[in-house]
Specification:
Layout: E1 2-4, E2 11-13, E3 24-27, E4 34-37, H1 58-68, E5 73-74, E6 80-81, E7 89-94, H2 98-107, E8 113-117, H3 121-130, E9 135-138, H4 148-157, H5 161-164, E10 168-173, H6 181-187, E11 191-194, H7 201-215, H8 217-223
Amino acid sequence: MQVVCTQCRAKFEIQEKNLPDKPFSVNCPKCRFGMTVKPPPKAAPTIRGAPKSMQVNQDALTQLVALLSGQTTRNADGSTGSLASWQRRQTLLCLTDQAQIQQVLEKLDHNAYAPSVCEEAAKAIELMRDSQIDLVLLDPQFDSANQGGIAVLRHVNSLPPKYRRRTYLVLISPQVKTLDTYMAFLNGVNLTVNAADVETINLILERSIRDFNELYRCYNTAAGLNPF
């Protein structure tokens, strides 16, 4: 580090390895004038052997640690929430009635579920093929022109067992009773919800998924899998 005396303007060098972290006092070797010197800021640490483009950004590193620890989440609009989006259950809404879709979006706990709305069965199946969808809320009348309800139901139930087990299928209809395990079995779904009970969708899902995880607890433990 080069230092210039503020009294006689003489220049002299101080080895950086000898510099303290805080401002320090030093005497000019020529005129003995005393002055306070502020050390330059230390460079940010870099990955050994990495190019400059890979230098560690402290803010980004802090955000990454928070994301990995589940303390924050970054949403599509750049805002942050309480849980990372990839930790929330990816939820596909295959519903017909727009009012019901809006109601589900308003009532669903967005800290636990990351919902996406689909209007066509073909698109819904494409999404399930391209990415892991954890939860499907299905209206039997979905995309009725293309028998979309049946198409989505068949696709989910045709998945290999290890993938079918990780796809939670919920049938929402005014024709079914909420938490009717027998009706759920007959329809090849994990859960039935009466359309009138959407107001309490979070409590219904919590109870049903808790029972589901308990049912597969021994299997998940043996296979080293996390609960759904």
